[in-house]
Write a structure and sequence with these properties.
The protein is elongated, with a radius of gyration of 14 Å. It has about 120 residues and is mainly β. The mean pLDDT is about 95. The strands form two sheets. Strands 2, 4, 5, 6, 9, 10 and 11 form a seven-stranded mixed beta sheet that branches. About 0% of the residues lie in helices and about 60% in strands.
């Protein structure tokens, strides 16, 4: 069974920092890309940051210069370091991974359960 387990959310004041972690486990052959999405109440899910298997990052414009996505290939883990947090960053953050799994080398998109990030003003 392949799964993504997230941790690191919480409540922080504006200007503060949080670090999210997402670890993939199970019958993983390879991880093609990993990323973080977020969804605020009443809003659509949006991509925050992603990183390819080669380590090339991509960021949403609103988080550039504040958030950093880091991938540890040896641990099948991706981190999102969030600095200078703003109230508008408040959302449920979800980890996503595009992975090749199992003995049949099938490729699927996986999601974590989500972790709440709340930034108070």
């Amino acid at each position: 069974q392949v799964q993504l387990v997230e941790s690191g959310g919480g409540l922080v004041q504006a200007g503060g920092s949080l670090r999210l972690s997402c670890a993939a486990s199970g019958s993983i052959v390879s991880i093609n890309a990993m990323g973080w999405y977020r969804q605020a109440p009443g809003k659509q899910r949006e991509l925050v940051a992603s990183i390819t298997s080669r380590g090339n990052p991509n960021y949403q414009d609103s988080v550039k210069g504040r958030f950093t996505i880091i991938r540890d290939g040896a641990k099948n883990t991706v981190y999102l370091q969030m600095n200078s947090l703003k109230p508008e960053d408040t959302a449920v953050y979800l980890c996503n991974a595009d992975m090749t799994v199992g003995s049949w080398y099938e490729r699927y998109d996986y999601w974590g359960q989500g972790t709440q990030v709340t930034v108070s003003s």
